[in-house]
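ok so i was messing around last nite and threw this chain in just to see what happens. nothing serious, just curious
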Amino acid sequence: MKLDSDEIKSLISQREGYNLEFKESFSNSIAREICAFANASGGKLLLGVSDEGEIRGITTSNAMISRIYDVARNSDPPIKVEISRKGDILVVDVFEGTDKPYSVNGKFYVRDGAKSQQLKRDEIRRFFQEECLILFDEKLNYDFDLEKDFDEVVFGAFLEMTRTSPVLEKDDILKNLGLLKDDYLKNAGVLLFCKKITAFLLNATITCVLFQGRDKYKILDRKEFEGDMYSNYQDAFTYLQSKLNTEYIIKGGPREEKLELPESALREAILNAIAHRNYFLNANIQVYIFSDRVEITNPGGLPPGMSYADLGRKSMPRNFLLFRLMQRMGLVEKVGTGILRMNHAMEEYRLEKPVMEANENWFTIIFKRPELERASFEGRGKTTQKTTQKTTQKTTQK
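result:
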């Protein structure tokens, strides 16, 4: 993108930063800056400008420009750049890469504030994870023993739920599902069919906590669920259901039961946490129940390429293999529809839409509880009240 004189002056008036680098002269360090910008969100190199923002000018030549293009072209993979001259300044516009990570001479660089830093081995691994270039659910789990650790009962239930014929051998079914390779089960399969998840994935559990009041000062009850994925989902919902108010409505026929918050929305939120969490992070899913709200939190913020404004409009599953299998089980529907369904369910209950909060490490869905809860929270399980409309409200504390 060519810049006019005013835009150049505006850039120079800024300090060097995440997307802007000044270079007084041409040097081999330009390769590092180009790589770092491509691994970040793109940026501009201004050659002929000092670190202090003073225009020193640079004598350019076709050979110099060719060398810069060679650096970009010889990167792994190649990086897109555009070069333009403006007076005594050479502008190198580096585009954000669409095939991260990028390396030059076998080294990886990223922007750290106004500087480009080489990544160490553990940082490279984390970078791959954050960019979803290493897919947790696709990784083979070499510790899992198909004979000792595989839950045949859970597998049988899965076949029934997905209407998969059991005629084939177990290994063939797992291969067809994309879960078995070289006689090793992938992590998605471990999540689905393990007997005890903490034997292999310590963080793939769900913690449910009931608090007194609106803060975390006093814990009334706590449960940890450590089974297979489907069992954890069902157990977490059952626990949550038991801590919320249920209204029994009698209208002359069989009584109707109505949870204070829509069951479908709560189930959707738990499934969303399981399907979209970052399993590389050393933290588990949390279901917190307060007197005025329910919070369901999963490790991992929004995936790369997705913004807060995209919520409810599009989705980028972090664990696509796991998500696809959950679809086959009938647990989730199309990608990107979960939040819309939660909103619709809350509207049908005439309740506020759930609030979504996200940062780089966490994603939280918050359901505001109806006012009827306030009076009965402390006495849960002790009272049953009847109204003149022959409606009873039952609260249980376990």
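not much to say yet. The radius of gyration is 27 Å.
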